[in-house]
Amino acid sequence: MNSILNAQRLLQLYQFHPKLKDIWYLVAAASFSVCNEPQEIPKLYHYALALSNQNAQKYRVTLAHKTMDLIYTNNEQEQRSKLINEIYSNPTALQKTLTEKFRDTLLKSGPLAGLPKAINGLSNLKEVTPTVLLPRTPMIDPWEAAMGREEPCPATMRESINSYEDRSLIIQRGLRHWNSIYNKVSTRVVNNLNSSYPDLWYYTLVHVYGPLLSFTGALTAQETSLVVIASLVPQDVNPQLRGHLKGALNIGCDFETIEAVRRLSILVSQWSGVQWKDGIVQLTLKKKQSV
Question: Which SUPFAM superfamilies match (predicted)?
Answer without folding.
Answer: AhpD-like
